[in-house]
Amino acid sequence: MKSSPPLPGDELDPEACIKSQVLLEAIGRRWTGAVLLAAHRGATRFGDYRRMVPGISDRLLSQRLKELEHMGLIEREVIPTTPVQILYRPTKDGAGLMTALQPLIAWGTRHFILDGSPA
Amino acid sequence: MKSSPPLPGDELDPEACIKSQVLLEAIGRRWTGAVLLAAHRGATRFGDYRRMVPGISDRLLSQRLKELEHMGLIEREVIPTTPVQILYRPTKDGAGLMTALQPLIAWGTRHFILDGSPA
DNA sequence: CTGAATCCAATAGGATACTG
DNA sequence: CAGTATCCTATTGGATTCAG
Asked: What is the largest distance, in Å, between two alpha-carbon atoms of chain A?
């Protein structure tokens, strides 16, 4: 986002603003942060994530992993053993995102925003 | 979030993880990023936001402003003129969040994630 | 073990109209 | 100007069950 002097009245720079909003909405979905963090912390198997993100259902975990894969943040690798092993690992982009996320996470950790009900 | 060696199997550090997830979900809601940015860019009046965030409805704008106020990220000030003026301005915390958000925004601007449909 | 399928309840958000 | 109220639909996410 560019930083022109405050001129209320002009629309927000669409190019950067929209991309940021899309990203925020994507990683702001329920459990996504935790799944991302689990990947960053070394989770690889489906069961790893399931254990490291307690409370998430299989359905949502599967969905979140697909979304993250679709966004190019994690990679799905199939190891043809018997039974097959599936590995989910952060991509370079995923690692980069985690880095970019650190200041926000640090900020959020210091400021105890509020309970889960924003409304 | 702390960075211990990868030990898949233990739960994620709840203290920081949950806070981060709550924060991410809060600012990941639709329009929230844009509203926050508008505040950062100098919007103060309700109409300012309305113009700077094209597409948002009055209902959602009102709701987002309330949420951000509730989170302590913006302040609502009533100026008792006639008619009354209402000002919405970033708090110190809000400004701090924007700072913490910069790396993420920069990252998102460089990486053109995808269209709006993650599923 | 790694999911996919289904069903259901809750929520979010868009559109519109109206008010002090 | 600064919202609120209402209605309506789409989307979300939880729970459970089934399958390769």
From this structure: 63
Q: pTM for this one? A: 0.87
Backbone angles phi, psi at B50, to 5 degrees: -60, -40
User: Packing angle between helix A32-40 and helix A58-70, nearest 10 degrees?
Assistant: 70
* Predicted confidence (pLDDT) per residue in B76-113, tens digit: 999 999 889 999 999 999 999 999 999 999 999 988 77
Measuring CA to CA, which residue among B61, B25, B12 is closest to residue A117? B25
- Reading the block at residue B10, the tokens are 């233990």
Look up tokens 């254990």; give the residue: A51
- Three-state DSSP class for B5? coil
Residues 6-45 of A with CB under 7 A from strand C: 45
Read off the tokens for B78. Answer: 């009533």
- Residue A57 DSSP one-character state: -
Q: Which of A15, A3, A14, A16 is nearest to B53 (CA)?
A: A14
Q: Mutate one of A20, A35, A44, A92 to test the B interface: name it (highest B CB count within 10 A).
A: A20
Give ∠ CA B33-B51-A3 in degrees, rounded to 5.
55
Lowest mean per-residue pLDDT among A30-39, B2-11, B18-27, B105-114:
B2-11
Q: Which of A66, A72, A114 sits opposite B70 (nearest CB)?
A: A114
